[in-house]
From TrEMBL:
Transmembrane segments: none
Listed SUPFAM superfamilies: Trimeric LpxA-like enzymes
Name the record gives this protein: Acetyltransferase
Pfam families for this protein: Hexapep, Hexapep_2
CDD domains (alphabetical): LbH_WxcM_N_like
């Protein structure tokens, strides 16, 4: 592995010169970082992961092996993207135009997925653009997210639906009555009001 300006890049990774990479970030075997992507400090980009042109990753983001993050996705600090998860960017995917001509970049408009601070996307989950996944939410492995996910929500299934709440530690919260919830790991209390969860 080579180290340049505090960034560690595997010799087999493909990092475009126009990408901005924060200090302490590590980019592993066969990962690809495209032009104009911005990665914050202390990120970890796993084997075979892809970061599209102009994608923005905050600090301390983890992309596990073969995660695909298509432009113009925006990931906040502390986001986790599990192995082989996909963040899409084409609302109406087609290889060709209605007249049969191969589509070019001018024939469609990329739309991005937005992931809030501390949120986690499980292995092989798919986030269909232009959804937003809220802060500290947890998308279960294999889920397909087609609608926005609230902060602290636990969503599962195809299409993804909320089945509970999680705290910052990622553990399911325990109901304690009167629309209050408790994190079994940290002891933090949360309050649910109108389908929105906030920390107390």
């Amino acid at each position: 592995m080579s180290n340049r300006e505090g960034v560690t890049v595997a010799p087999t990774a493909d990092v475009d010169e126009r990408a901005e990479i924060g200090a302490g970030t590590r980019i592993w075997h066969l990962a690809q970082i495209r032009e104009d992507a911005t990665l914050g400090e202390n990120c970890n980009v796993g084997r075979g992961a892809y970061v599209g042109p102009g994608v923005t990753l905050g600090h301390n983001v983890k992309l596990q092996n073969h995660a695909l993050v298509y432009e113009p996705a925006r990931l906040a600090d502390g986001v986790f993207i599990g192995p082989a998860a996909v963040l899409t960017n084409d609302e109406y995917p087609r290889a060709v135009t209605p007249d049969g001509r191969l589509k070019s970049g001018d024939d469609w408009t990329a739309v991005g997925v937005t992931i809030g601070e501390g949120a986690a996307i499980g292995a092989r989950a798919v986030c269909v653009a232009p959804v937003t996944v809220g802060r500290w939410a947890l998308v279960a492995a294999g889920a397909v997210v087609t609608k926005d996910v609230p902060d602290f929500a636990l969503v599962v299934g195809v299409p993804a639906r909320r089945i509970g709440w999680v705290g910052r530690a990622g553990r399911p919260l325990t109901p304690t009555g009167d629309n209050t919830w408790l994190c079994p790991e940290t002891g933090t209390e949360y309050v649910e009001t109108g389908g929105v969860l906030t920390e107390r």
